[in-house]
Amino acid sequence: MPPSTLAADAGTLRLRRNTMLWALTAMALFLVSTLLGLFLRLFQGNAFPAVEPVWFYSSLTLHAIIMVGAWFLGSMAGVHYLLARYVQPSSTASELAMGGSVAGVVLIAISTLLGKFGVGWYFLFPLPLYPNGVWLPWATAVFFAGLAILAVFWLIWVLDLLRAIARRYSLSVALGWHILRGAKEPEVPPLVLITTVSLVVVTAALVAAALVLLLFLLHWSGRARVDALLMKNLTFLFGHIIVNITLYLGVAILYEMLPAFAGRPWKTSKLVAIAWNAVLLLVLFAYLHHLYMDFAQPRWVQVAGQTASYFLSLPAAAVTIFGVLALIYRSGFRWTMASRLLVCGVLGWVIGGIAAVIDATVAVNSVFHNTLWVPAHFHTYYLMGVVLMVLAFFDHLSRELTRPDTDVRAAGWTLVLLLAGGYGFLAMFYYGGATSVPRRFATYPEETLQGVIQARVAAAFVVVLFGTLAVYLSRVAARCLRAFADCRNAS
Amino acid sequence: MTSARIAACLAAGLASLWGQSEVSPNQPPNEDLYLYHSVPDIAVQPVGKPATPLSGLWRDRPLLITMVFTRCAGVCYPFLRSLRAATELAAKPPSGYRVLVLSFDSRDTVSDMKAAASGIGAGADEDWIFATAAEESVRRLAEATGFWFRWDGEKRQFDHPAVLLAVKNGRLVRLFAGGRITAESLGSVLRDLDGGFVPSYPLADKTSFRCFQYNAATGGYSLDWGALLLVLPGTIAFLAALLTFRPWRRRGARAPFPAA
Question: What is the ipTM of this complex?
Fold first, then answer.
């Protein structure tokens, strides 16, 4: 039987305090980044005709980095806390990651807001090396320094979590290989299985990031002329995996939390083990769907990209959806704000996942490539997927640690407005993609002026979303602050 | 090795990476290192005209600059002739352009440059400007664009590459290096200057770590060294996992849980 509460068997005061701090940080960054997103859609809606487009691109860069970084860290904090039920991760590694993340984000904010660095999160080679008077030349170095700091400190945290798992489980047990062979013992929770898969893969992503930075340095110093195709491969190996694994860490939280509301256990079955080992096998190749338009890549690589994209997403999603439904069905499921967020998060994952698979089909991608369909799908499984899952964790844990009064009606309205604002905003992205509106355009040319109206409608939905989030997150943040203060006083 | 020694080695390695090798001996300038950089607004003395800053030449239309010396027994005149021929064949952009032939040899006089202009048949062309400049100004321009020249006392000649700098509004938009320029190459430079679409650029030689090699004869691909770098992150990740979990360790050695 799963533990009914998160706080009851949670670790030390230090762990709780750190988790609350991560929650506050992630939520604050989320609100800032949502405001940046609103600015971007308003800009595309021609709301700021006097503002130079360079501000659109630098804001776009900052928005993406903050959004991905905040929820990668938020999901890591959630997994760290929940893993402490089974293993002993180091709080020091989490604190180091906090320090490194603050330093890295500050540097990236300086490079984008003061240096006007606006090449996008993917900093595609060789663009960052050619400021051309658009951004200040030092901003490139500051941006890369920020990224390097993030990569190093995140890697330390990732490796520490792996170390903690390794102290109790062998690699084959952590990956559920004994279950694949038909054994039932030893029991390995899905949280441990999914986290192990995710952490191994995210290590590869962070190494790829380090490699990209090193090759940039080599090229910039004139020591070597670096192959642009290699750089693009490595950049998306890093970027795609970070986003993908953030989602899977959110799913790991889902597997651990949902049983508490259903009153039923969610064990690692053979199907669960197969699905997540398929992720381990294929996730390193799925990024290739970002390079379908790169004709210099051989055809067999493109085929591998489409195959990996299909078989990566389908088994894990199917097993999880089936598991969620089976867990809820006739269980007397407790519908709290957190459990609703978790279920809505699965819905976002499914919708975004289907849109992603559509776009990962070569024949479709040749039409949808670099249209608004792309941000449509990743915003769906991110904003309406993993963000809701991690918010569910923060909401539930802060509630358990502080025991506030529950306003059921307010929770219901919050969810309705959150979904209306979120899906309304996303619908404009999908519609834009279907009507060939390009992504990453600060202003639209005459041929795609329909994008202006779509951006204005989207901005209205973002206002609803932001307003709801501001009210809801301020309540969660107040509980987190109280819990943080309680932990500090108690220690 | 102590940690201090390791740190010192790492620092030395990084320092050697950091130092930009902007001027490679006997190599033409690397376009990547100078593209979009500002070109210094030096003063030049054109043949038959009053002295002017370079900005006076690039203010109303793009400017192509090549640097030569009139006593050159090597690449200068063949390059100038190929450039002259290419300008006659390549389509002229609507905005037009000027060509500045600037001497980097302090011995060259205005009359030397006038003779050079006549020698390649550009003496009467208003869009071709032959000029000299102060030694210091030439040095500044050379440093800003990667151009280099060295006196070879034995041959009594300057050793230098042949380059064409394409400048628009004071910024270097293209840098062509080579002994001869064709109308096609010049056409691509002019399209860039005019903001036109250039479908592809010639790939630089000696590109490191290519992922694949393409065989135009067979239409097939083969893996190259860069492909190894592509599998490196995954390999390191799985090695890190193996080292962390150490599957060869005895099972009994695993820490019991929950700890006290």
Answer: 0.91
Selecting from B212, B238, B257 the residue whose C-beta is nearest the C-beta of A87 gives B257
Task: With respect to residue B12, please indicate whether it lies within any of the assigned structural domains.
Answer: no
Q: Which two tokens stand for residue B76?
A: 């200068």
Which of B17, B247, B257 is closest, CB to CB, to A171?
B247
Chain B residues within 8 A of A200 when measuring between CB atoms: 237-238, 240-241
Beta bridge partner(s), residue B132:
B45
Dihedral (CA of B23, B34, A231, B13) sign: positive
Chain B, nearest residue to A227 by Cα: B210
> Nearest 5°: CA angle at A351, between A349 and A354?
100
The span from the CA of A245 to the CA of A231, in Å, is 21
B-contacting residues in A 202-261 (Cβ below 8 Å)? 203-205, 207-208, 211, 215, 217-227, 229-230, 233-234, 237-238
Task: State the Cα–Cα distance between residues A345 and A384, nearest whole angstrom.
Answer: 6
* Residues A234-278: tens digit of each pLDDT: 999 999 999 999 999 999 999 999 999 999 999 999 999 999 999
Other Cβ atoms within 10 Å of B173 Cβ, number: 19
Residues of A in contact with B32 (CB under 8 A): 126, 129, 219, 225
For B217, the domain range is 212-245
Helix (H, G, I), strand (E, B) or coil at B128: strand
The CATH number of whichever domain residue A368 belongs to comes to: 1.20.210.10
On whether the CB atoms of residues A226 and A215 are closer than 8 A, the answer is yes
CA of B253: which chain A residue's CA is closest? A167
CATH value at residue B126: 3.40.30.10
- Total structural domains within chain A: 1
What are B68-121's pLDDT values in tens digits?
999 999 999 999 999 999 999 998 888 899 999 999 999 999 999 999 999 999
Mutation target vs A (from B211, B214, B249; most A CBs, 10 A cutoff):
B211
Query: In a 3-state reduction of DSSP, which class is residue A45?
Result: coil
Exposed / middle / buried, residue B55 (Cβ in 10 Å: 0-12, 13-18, 19+): middle
Which phi and psi (to 5°) does residue B50 adopt?
-70, 155
Q: CA B199 to CA A208: how far, in whole Å?
A: 30
Q: What is the pTM of this model?
A: 0.80
Residue A4 covered by a domain: no
- Residue A410 maps to a domain: yes
Contact A229 B212 (CB under 8 A): yes
Separation between Cα atoms, residue B90 and residue B185, nearest integer Å: 9
CA distance A206 to A214: 12
